[in-house]
Amino acid sequence: MPAPIRLRELIRTIRTARTQAEEREMIQKECAAIRSSFREEDNTYRCRNVAKLLYMHMLGYPAHFGQLECLKLIASQKFTDKRIGYLGAMLLLDERQDVHLLMTNCIKNDLNHSTQYVQGLALCTLGCMGSSEMCRDLAGEVEKLLKTSNSYLRKKAALCAVHVIRKVPELMEMFLPATKNLLSEKNHGVLHTSVVLLTEMCERSPDMLSHFRKLVPQLVRILKNLIMSGYSPEHDVSGISDPFLQVRILRLLRILGKGDDDSSEAMNDILAQVATNTETSKNVGNAILYETVLTIMDIKSESGLRVLAINILGRFLLNNDKNIRYVALTSLLKTVQTDHNAVQRHRSTIVDCLKDLDVSIKRRAMELSFALVNGNNIRGMMKELLYFLDSCDPEFKADCASGIFLAAEKYAPSKRWHIDTIMRVLTTAGSYVRDDSVPNLIQLITNSVEMHAYTVQRLYKALLDDISQQPLVQVASWCIGEYGDLLVSGQCEEEEPIQVSEDEVLDVLEGLLVSNLSTPVTRGYSLTAIMKLSTRFSSLNRIKKVVSIYGSSIDVELQQRAVEYNALFKKYDHMRPALLERMPIMEKTATNGPAEIVQTNGETESTILDTKHLPNITQPASQANDLLDLLGGNDVVPVIQTTVPTKPASAGGELLDLLGDLSLTGGPTPTPAPSVPMSQPPFLLDGLTSQPLFNDIAAVIPPMTAYNKNGLKIEFTFERSNPNPNIAVITIHATNSTEADMTEFVFQAAVPKTFQLQLLSPSSNVVPALNQGSVTQVIRVLNPQKQQLRMRIKLTYTHKGSPVQDLAEVNNFPPQSWQ
Q1: pTM confidence score
Q2: Domains within the chain, CATH numbers bracketed
């Protein structure tokens, strides 16, 4: 058989291929020749054939048939054969294949070989792909080589020991005696690998962490020598002595100093020296400074040192390198809670980053800017953030608008400033605001009694300028419906009142009904506003005409509203003023936030309920009704109650006639409910029961942990619904122990078809980091047969930019929750 071609010739031949098919044909032809050579047990060219096979493997072609040939090369006495054999083993084998166990004896022999380079090959292979079984068998040899005087072998043995500890943590103590003298070594390669080994041991064992804290002075001495040493061509990188070793030592000091006063005190001085003496003109120096900053922030360092670290990050913000600016913003975002005042000094630089062209830097700068907002700088920061909202890309507008809403609610200096700010957001980015912003703003306006005239006048002006921003139009429609009489009478004291007639107001609202820009939800707001004005304006005939026209609308929602309103005009006109009177002040509940009702579970147990595309409904907890009678159908209708004083008892009975055959639960004589502000307004007469939502005996059912994984913890607390003990009310509490917020959080649930399930909306879609807050959501489960409760949950969220999705079964509910 002719000699096979050399590796160099094969590479040259493959590179001449013009198409993928031509390359594939060459590879297949060469693989056939290699297989033939392997079958003939050709020892002469085995090394060459395996080398060519490894090159094909690197190109992505299958090379598994060469695994046994690698083992044969490893068993060879020639160094060139062993080198290719071990390389092939590292590339073609892993612990999932039993073939790798056949190498154990060869590696053991080579670890005791007389040639250091053969020993080095065996250490590299074991440290790369050794399984737990191999590590147990060969740990003794590795530990022996760790004590040798040969620095070439010691550095490889230290890295191999790291792999052994990762695979078999209980073998950690075996290497403890060998680590005593590692830091005394002068060779930088051994020092580097020794620090890596010590770091691994400290991260995996609290006992090792306590044991190695006594090495802090020695590590400080090594780091000081590196900083103060003169030029060394062997270790110099851009004028800095061995930056890789410096970074590794700083990381180990960070671990050793965390939570320990004595260790932190011992390293304060050296950290200050590194922070002040490191050259920042090159990226190498910036890397060391960044590690220094992280170490200062993690240990119990002095306040002056922490300010120095934050000033270093502030200098990073002025760097031309985008990566360095991004790293600085991310680090400042982590430290802003603990060192708020120090970060505040760099506020102007951070705000300037909002104008950066890089989207990642802009996003981090936006998040950090919101974290810096407080009562003292709210006006200036809001001015900058509103300017950013006006000019930023669409992908930022939703998050920016939400941040402004939250900051304004928390730190608003006055009600007028608060309303002006939110209206500015709606006019600038109305189409991008979240669904709950409309009911939240309506609630703010309702509760600001002295600002009603000013607000309705401002919103009316905004409506004349632009009707394309649907959330703005919805809020304006609601306010005109509630306070249209204040608009027409010109009672505004905060600014010069405008002269508006009733017909002009009605013209604007009718224009919204016919506009192509209006969504069905907006048309519902407009029709309800026109209906409310029938008790505030004198143009009753015009309003009746408009309402009657939409009684035959193609939009079913709009048609039903018009039909109900027509019935009020004709049959129940004496009730209309009470039904359409002004909304009382609404109390904001922190438990459920905007309530969101979803349909009952489907026919199969595996059905997961989707809560993302359903309308949000603002619903005070004290006014929520029992929905037992409504759980039987496919569509669960929101039930909202508001008490209207001084109405005769017979009015409730007359209102019930409008609902036809709908069966309502017992209770006191119901009272009519005026329209309530919502993303999608409810039917005027939906739900007239007056049962309280929860009772006061929740303490008898113990809470439970339903899910605890990847830093996300879901806890269930239980209550019983008052009208019917067959309804279990479960409140979920989602907390996040990681360092980053979990955004776009969605909790979904399904139960067997013998149960019926109902989800209210969550309090938020962001689970704050470091357990600094929680997301709550209410689940109601109807269990008429008193069966053991079982539930399947689905969790979806985004963490550190990556989408996460997980399913879990919850079968360990306490018996009190379902019996």
Answers
A1: 0.61
A2: 435-580 (no CATH), 704-817 (2.60.40.1230)
